[in-house]
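Below is a filled-in request sheet from our internal design queue. Each sheet records the structural input a requester submitted and the sequence that came back. We keep these sheets so that new team members can see what a complete request looks like end to end.

REQUESTER: design group, bay 2
PRIORITY: normal
MODE: inverse folding
CHAIN LENGTH: 222
BACKBONE (tokenized):
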């Protein structure tokens, strides 16, 4: 995982300026078609596709190359059912007691509620865990750095890889998510970061009629 040696970066590939422009434009257009969906088909997805998406996530830049993440991939219907039941219990508490009126008003246009059937419908749930510290082969703790930032970047790359493969995804964050450690048997140094639902969208699935902010609202050039 860690090395004090340096090698020549022979994998870098530069493109002519016009090709660079075209690649940047076409990739943006491809990614702009990505939408979060909440209704999934039960169609199966080859595990090899998911494995390569996870390999992509594993290439993410991260603090001191400690790679402080774990991706627990759930396919088993019984385990998915258990996750759904636990998540919906937390979601009901959120909608009924924890969420402020302002928060619920912000969520209203998205049509969300405490019912999460997609947790059983989709072929894959990927529970993403952040590792607050590592444990070496002798059982000693290894300090991790910039954990949230690192796992956030890896998660973004995973979502991008899933879309690039022709699949849909949904980021699900019931709070708290400690039940995932118990159900999936993850150790105490790991904390649930996000639950990513992955699969094909249902036919003619509907999504909220929303837009993204234009470039001049999200970026500045100094």
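RETURNED SEQUENCE:
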């Amino acid at each position: 995982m860690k090395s004090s040696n340096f090698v020549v970066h022979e994998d870098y590939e530069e493109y002519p300026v016009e090709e660079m422009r075209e690649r940047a434009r076409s990739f943006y257009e491809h990614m702009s078609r990505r939408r979060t969906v909440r209704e999934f088909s039960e169609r199966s997805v080859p595990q090899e596709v998911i494995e390569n998406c996870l390999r992509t996530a594993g290439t993410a830049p991260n603090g001191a190359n400690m790679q402080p993440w774990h991706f627990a991939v759930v396919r088993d219907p019984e385990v998915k059912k258990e996750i759904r039941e636990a998540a919906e219990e937390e979601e009901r508490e959120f909608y009924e007691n924890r969420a402020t009126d302002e928060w619920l008003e912000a969520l209203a246009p998205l049509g969300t509620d405490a019912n999460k059937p997609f947790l059983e419908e989709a072929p894959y749930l990927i529970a993403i865990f952040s590792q607050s510290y590592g444990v070496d082969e002798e059982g000693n703790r290894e300090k991790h750095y910039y954990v949230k930032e690192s796992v956030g970047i890896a998660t973004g790359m995973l979502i991008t890889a899933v879309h690039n493969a022709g699949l849909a995804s949904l980021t699900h964050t019931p709070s708290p998510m400690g039940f995932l450690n118990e159900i999936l048997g993850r150790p105490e140094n790991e904390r649930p970061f996000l639950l990513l639902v992955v699969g094909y969208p249902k036919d003619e699935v509907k999504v909220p009629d929303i837009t993204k902010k234009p470039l001049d609202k999200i970026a500045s050039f100094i």
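SHEET NOTES:
- Residues 110 and 124 are 23 Å apart (CA to CA).
- The chain has a mean pLDDT of 95.
FILED BY: M.R.
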